[in-house]
Design brief:
Length: 242
């Protein structure tokens, strides 16, 4: 009965908390952000988070429906927006523990952008790389590590080009893509390649966190944890001196 996911007791109140979460979700901050819900046990944190996630999923599904209608009327004008909505829907479905549906939505997003690029139409490279990065995560979640690695490498390649043109704008996204690539290599049994990618992610993130600790320290801790785990794995594999 106390399991938040069972939702035995109807959800009531928490209007102010939900309003603040919506403001955070819909604001102009970083594309990837974390919001902590904290407090004593039994205060409804899990239920509030589940309610917010369900609401976000419903919003994402409605956005996809509306963009599909617009694409039917004018594909060239609206396809990229549909792709972005599908990629966001994939993230919401993944958060709701629906990995197969999340993969389907994200694959469609990448297919739309890939098809536009193949026919010579303009494609926002940042959006394309972000969709590829998401697709790598979705493929890994359904145990397709080789495809996840290939997709993650493509995302990194695009971000490397973008960073060469505008470092400040795209270094955060490159760091996240490199961190994901490190995980993909490690999952396939290549910890050295995983460490190389992760160390580069840490290097970039350290510089970002030095300039803006509030925005970038959380990811820095995550990347550093992954790096240290890979270092430990490689140390275990190294021959021990006799």
């Amino acid at each position: 009965m106390l399991n938040a996911r069972r939702a035995v007791v109807p959800f009531t109140g928490r209007h102010d908390e939900l309003a603040r979460l919506r403001e955070w979700r819909d604001g102009d901050g970083a594309r990837l952000a974390v919001r902590w819900l904290y407090g004593p046990g039994g205060q409804g944190k899990s239920r509030l988070a589940a309610r917010f996630a369900d609401e976000a999923l419903t919003t994402a599904e409605e956005a996809v429906r509306q963009w599909r209608e617009l694409v039917a009327a004018n594909p060239a004008l609206h396809e990229e927006f549909l792709a972005a909505a599908l990629s966001d829907l994939g993230n919401r479905l993944a958060a709701a523990d629906r990995p197969e549906e999340a993969l389907t939505a994200t694959e469609e997003a990448v297919l739309i952008l890939d098809r536009r690029a193949a026919t010579g139409r303009a494609v926002d490279r940042d959006s394309f790389a972000n969709a590829l990065n998401n697709l790598g995560n979705r493929l890994a979640a359904v145990n397709r590590p080789e495809a996840a690695l290939d997709t993650s490498r493509k995302a990194v390649e695009i971000y490397l080009v973008l960073v060469g043109e505008h470092p400040a704008a795209y270094e955060p996204a490159l760091a996240r893509a490199l961190a994901n690539l490190g995980i993909r290599w490690a999952q396939l049994g290549f910890p050295r390649k995983g460490l190389d990618a992760t160390e580069e992610a840490v290097r970039i993130q350290q510089a970002l966190a030095a300039a803006n600790p509030e925005a970038f320290t959380t990811d820095l801790r995550r990347f550093t944890y992954n790096r240290d785990a890979l270092r430990a794995e490689l140390a275990e594999r190294s021959p021990r001196p006799r």
